[in-house]
Amino acid sequence: MYNIVYSEDIIEDLTSKPVILIVGVKGMDIKQLQLGSSGEFWKFITKRQDQKTISREESEKRISAL
Q: Cβ neighbours of residue 12 under 8 Å, at least 6 residues apart?
């Protein structure tokens, strides 16, 4: 078994079209890997980033009201 650690992501390109992406995953758990490769997760994140932010104080008020 090989013990190789990649410090950077590597893209292998053949005939000007990316065909493989090798991503270093040292320190990540399986859930992080699953979320990172989930299109649904990134749609969710993008949608949330487009929303208006609230202050910490407002956030705490909303939580305490639950």
A: 18, 19, 20, 21, 22
Q: Is 21 helix (H, G, I), strand (E, B) or coil?
A: strand
DSSP per position, 25-63? -TT--HHHHHHHT-HHHHHHHHHHHTSPP--HHHHHHHH
> φ and ψ at 48, to 5 degrees?
-65, -35
User: What is this structure's pTM?
Assistant: 0.45
Residue showing tokens 């990316």: 18
Rg (CA), the chain: 19
Kindly report, residue by residue over 18-48, the tens digit of the pLDDT: 677 777 788 888 898 888 888 999 999 999 9
Cβ 53 vs Cβ 37: under 8 Å: no
